[in-house]
Each structure stands twice: as C-alpha cells, then as structure tokens.
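Consider this today:
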Amino acid sequence: MTAPLFSHRKHWAARFGTAPFLPMSRAEMTALGWDECDIILVTGDAYIDHPGFGMALIGRMLEAQGYRVGIISQPDWHSAEPFRALGKPALYFGVTAGNMDSMVNRYTSDRKIRSDDAYTPHAAPNKRPDRAVTVYAQRCREAFPGTPVIIGSIEASLRRIAHYDYWSDTVRRSVLADSKADLLIFGNAERALLDVTYRLAQGEKINTIRDLRGTAFMVPRDWMPPVPPDSDKTAAHWIEVQSTELDTPGAIEAHVDPYAMAASVPTTQTPDGTAPIRLIPKAARLAAIQDQRAHTVIRLPDYDQVKNNPVLYAHASRVFHLESNPGNARALRQAHGERDVWLNPPPIPLTTPEMDAVYDLPYARAPHPAYGDAKIPAWEMIRFSVNIMRGCFGGCTFCSITEHEGRIIQSRSEDSVIREVEAIRDRTPGFTGVISDLGGPTANMYRMACKSEKIEKACRRLSCVYPGICDNLDTDHTPLVNMYRRARALPGIKKILVSSGLRYDLAVRSPEYVKELVQHHVGGYLKIAPEHTETGPLSKMMKPGMGAYDRFKDMFESASRAVGKKQYLIPYFIAAHPGTTDEDMLNLALWLKRHEFRLDQVQTFLPTPMALATTMYHTGRNPLKKVLGGKAEKVDVVREGRRRRLHKAFLRYHDPDNWPMLRDALKAMGREDLIGNGKKHLIPLYQPAGTGKQPEGARAPRSPAPGQPKAGAGRGKPGPAGDGRPHQVPKHPLSQRRGGGKTR
C-alpha cells in the first residue's frame, strides 16, 4: 500500500513559514531568518513561481513539508563559484535542466542553434549549457565535495539508460555515469523526492537509499537489494533474468491456469516413487507470480553491446518500454564498465487528492522579482492557462511524454481546477477574462482510465488507442464537459480556450464534447495532429488513420455552422519520420493541395533520447515487433540531409523556393505529370524571378488582371496572420513538441 504523498512528519524548519518567493540570494535567506538551505535546486530555466514550472512545483512541495529550499537559476556554468551563491545545502543539491531538454531547447531538428530561449528573460539564448544536467551536477560536486547530488526532470528521465544521442550521432552512456550524481529520479518525482528527503533528514546516507520507485543509481556488477529482515528469505530472494529471454510480443508470462496441477515439495514419496500433486488455488498462484516479479531484475545488454550492435539496441529499447507499467514493471539493470545502472520500477501515479494538494500550494504565480520587467516568453504564454492532468496513454512513438509522465492519467479534481481559474482571475496582473488553455499533455484525456484496475495493472500494451481504442478504456468526456461549463460560467470569465493538442479519435466518441468544445472553446482555429495521411508512417508512429480525422472534421464543421461561426482545423504533420518513403510524402502533399492547406510551420522529425521512433531512426529496426532471432522488421529511415529537406519541401509544396527540388524529385519518381500550370498539378513549370533556378524552356504566365490572385498563390483560407494562408498555431511552451510532433 502506497503511503499518502504528504504523510511524513514535517521537518523542524516548518517554523519559518512560507516564503513569498523561494530565495535566490543570501540576502533573501537572511530576510527569511535562514542561516542555510536544506535543499538547493539548480535549474536551467528562469525561476517563475507557478505550478507550470517544475522547480517551483518541486520547491513549494518541499517547503510544504518544512524544508528550506533555495533556487539557483541559470547559473554561469564556466566555474563552480555561482553554485556557491547560497552556501552549502544541509541535505542535497537537486539538479534539473528545466522544463525542456537542454538539447531540444537549443538546437533545431537540423542541428542548428536556435536564436532564442523561451524560458529565459528577454528570450536570451545561450544561458544554459548543452546537456545541462551533467554540467550542473559536476559543478555542484566541485562547489561542495561530498554533498549529495540528485538529478531529475525530463532531460534526466530520457537519459537514464544508454541512449542514442542525435546531436552527436552516437550512443551515449546513462546520464548517471556522466554526471556522477548519487541518485536519479525519473518521471513524476514528487513521491520519491519527499521520501528520499525525509530519510536524508533522518540521517540516512544517500548511498543506502535503494528501494524507492522511480529512482535510478549506480551499483557494483554483483549487487542485489538486501532482503528485508522481516520477510520470508526464500520468497524475497532476488533473481536476475536476461532480457534476451523476454523479447516476445504480448504478455511475458502466460496467463495463469487456476486448475493447473503443480508438484509440491514432498516430505515423503508415493509407493511408485513419484511426488504427490496438489491443486494450487488461483489466488495463491497469482500472489506467487506477483511476488516473483517484485523481486526480479532484468539485465539489459551492456552499454558496450548496445553501442556497437543496432539489433541489441533495438531489443533493449523494446524491453525497456514493455517494463513501463507501474502495475507490473520489473527492475532493470545495465552494465556501464565495471558498474551497473539500476532502475527501480516506475513511480506510482498521484491520486486526485494528491494532485490537488500539489497544485493548491501557495505559488506567487509570477516570475521572481529579480527579473524586474523582463519578458519571459514561456511565462507570457502560460500565465493564464491551467494544467488539469498529466500523462498520456496514446503511446505515440515519437513522443517523450510516455517515458517521462507515463501512460496512466493523473487528474486534478474539478474544484481544484476552478480554484486556480479564480486565482488567475483575482491575482494575475493583466488578466482580461480569457483563460488561454484548460488542458495538459492532451486536451481530452481528463479522468480517463481503464475500466478495471486489475486489468490496468496487468496490461502490457504500449498504447490504449492503437491500433484501435481498447474496449477496456473508459472514454467518457462528461467530467470534462461539466468542468468546461462550470469554468466558463464563473463571474469575470469571458472565454475559456482549449489550446492543448486534441486527441480527435477519442473526441469523436462524444458528440456532446465536440459540440461544447467547438461552440465555446475554440478561438477560430483548432490545432490537431494527424501527423501523416499514409498507413506506412502512421503505423510506425502508432497513430490512427485519416478516417478518424475525417469524422472529427465533419463534426467540427457541423458544430461551427450550428452557431454561425467560421472556424478552421489546423493540422500538424511530421516530415522525415522513420518509415516514411518519398511516395508517402508526395501523397501527403497531394492531400494538402486537395484540401487547400498551405502550412507555414512544419516539423521535421527530431530523434529524442529513448523514444521508440528514435530507436527506429538509429537502428533501422522496428522495436514494436520482435527484434531478436532474425525477425527484426527493417524500417526506411530518412537520415541524410537532402532527403530530409525534400520531405519538408513536400509539406511546403506551395513555396517557390522548394519548386526546383520538387521538380527534380518528381522527375526521378516518374511523376512529371504533376509538374505544370493547371489545377491538377502539384507545382508549376515556371519559376518566379529571384526564387530559384528557372527550368529550361519554362516561361512564367502573364501577370493577372487587377483583383485576381497572383499565379502560384493558391486559395488557402485566411490565416491568423492575414496573409491569405492558413498557418499552424505556434507551439505552447509547456507542450514541448518533440520528435517532430506533439508530446502526445
């Protein structure tokens, strides 16, 4: 039984009360009456005291338990001195890169350095190092040798085992090995962090805390967890299983046969010398298997093996993802040289009361005063939004949310969400009555869960909605509809928008939800993510076919017409995803033209650490199926620069700068019939002056008559920018679109 989140006795320093902001300087500590911090959190983001920013949420949660928490935000990492700014912490340093992975934050999918950073005052670039968790942890060690260092956040979560690193095009070691941290907390860190903090405060050494879910650490090659003194020594004995024994699809154990006959351990033998047999009750069999799983560790191939063998890398990735359900996951270990990285099973998700307790903490809901009037883009975008849930059971292979937040939805109560809406209305400067988003990683998975807790704990599926929606999934949208209606009825609230990515294959199951959403919560444009139109790439993404999109589009347009509104769907698509052929991208471009879409912003697949699509990109194998035994399915990988640019050019078929490349590609594909100046053609034969090389023998058409559209302009519906073309809505900073697509 899992203890409630805030079940520990509060630390003695609770007498100091609540700080207006967690201190970032010695002067602030002195004003609070502190002589030291118990915990110092180091982050690559600006410190904004709001639950949408990880360090604020963790810091306030620790403060609620009575600990003195300081913040070192975006320190200069070129020396250890900035890490001494608040003195030595009494318990530990907590290190994070910030809300985003530092490499995704700084580099584009083409490995080019970005010119801004949304999580920095004035969007200034270069305020955090590459691989910030590793660099910050090393500097903390240098600043105060011997002080425990705990790492976490999405950057640490995605690098907890050996992983392919797109930016160096190599397989890198676990971040634990490189950072020299004492402990890594992956996923939702609240439960593990409160437990480890309490135990450190009680005098335990960090290198003895080895039993917490959601934690990873380094141990000797022959290490096994100690057997609890009050347990059955035989039942609690740990066993190690080679992962190569488990590379099979579906359930790893066969279903239990309650009528199976099993031999007991006899004290005597029957006259014929055979052992007596007895019936094992089903409950006892299940209990035995569960106990065995709880004391089993799976050994993944060593770092050196996965580094040099793509098949073993794909196999390790497959096994890792199969061990992701907190209800049945086993511990994992992987050798790195003379030591192992040990991963305990994932954390138990927070209950609704626990989620409420975390989000109801006394946040200042503003940037730290040290930033003055500086504009911080990430804050500007989320200051009027509310996060209602965590997690996603979609299982999209390019997504990072699964590896970090998990597949089990953790929802706040309706009352807690309403309290936050009222707090924004009453306390946030500049509020005009419009809530910019009421959502989360996905807009419409609020309170959705498996119909059976028993089935959920035993499930091994990587997605609840692919290849079809599971019959055991409760897809009721009623709680979400009721919350929308209650929120928009609050005094002083003019509009509640929903800007999070929508899972439309779920939405079509609830006409009432679609009606409520479209008629009251869409500001003219609704972004959704079909990601592609073709079966090949969609199967590698674990995304639904276009049938669900078409059904949702019909419902969306019908609901808009019913209230006399002109509203538009804005689809996201990914270029160069593993499993995508040139013909797939051509068919997508033809679909876009047929539906008169002209996309301004397009996404090229970005391989993020540990994602299944990243495994496909690196190995050319499909980890969604059996990998070992010569049965690995090969995957077409778009790797070299020119082909990646071509796939992106297909998404922007209307851009004259792309026409020369597309002409060459269409000719090579035997599709010259799509080059010409008619409506049936994808791109014209002529080339506007100054936009690219003019094809030989081509002549631009005459200038149009006044009032007529220019040649090649197309007829796209007007977009928000008023340029005559629909465009994709800029990404929400907390949505962290990764791998070329949303984090859903």
Summary: The CA atoms of residues 442 and 712 lie 37 Å apart. The longest helix spans residues 546-562. The two ends are 30 Å apart (CA to CA).
